Amino acid sequence: MTTEIQSDNRDQISFISVDSAPKKFAGFIPVWRAPATLAVFTLIAAMLLWMVNTPAGAQIFPNRDFVFSPYEGNHAIAIRIFLVSFYIAFGCFSSGTLIARLSFAADMTITFLMICGLLDLANLSAQYWLNVSFSLHFSAIVSGLVGFAVYSFKLLERGFMPSRIRIEHRAVKSTRAVIRLSTALLVASMVSLWVGSMDLDAVKTMRSWTLLGGIGPGVFLFLPVLFGQLYLLAIWDIMVAKTVKYRPPISVVVPAHNEQYIIEDTIRAMDTAAKHYGGEVHILIMNNNSSDDTEGIARATLAACEAASGKVINVPKPGKSNALNAGLDAVQTEFFIRVDADTLVGEDNFSRAMPFFTDPSVGVVGGVPVPPGGALFDRARLLEVQVKHGFYSVAMGAVNGVVGIPGMFVVMRTEHPRYLGGFVEGMNGEDTDLSLRIGELGYHSVVDPKLRYVSEVPASYKHMREQRMRWFRSVYHISSRCRDLIYSSNRSLRGKVILPYMLVNSARRAMLVPLIIFGALETLFAFNPMSPIVWQSVVAVTTGAPSIVAICATLLNGVPKGIIALPEYLIFRVMRAYFTLESMLSILIDVDAENLERATTRDLQKSGPVGIA
Question: Hey, what CATH topology would domain 239-460 get?
Answer without folding.
Answer: Spore Coat Polysaccharide Biosynthesis Protein SpsA; Chain A (3.90.550)
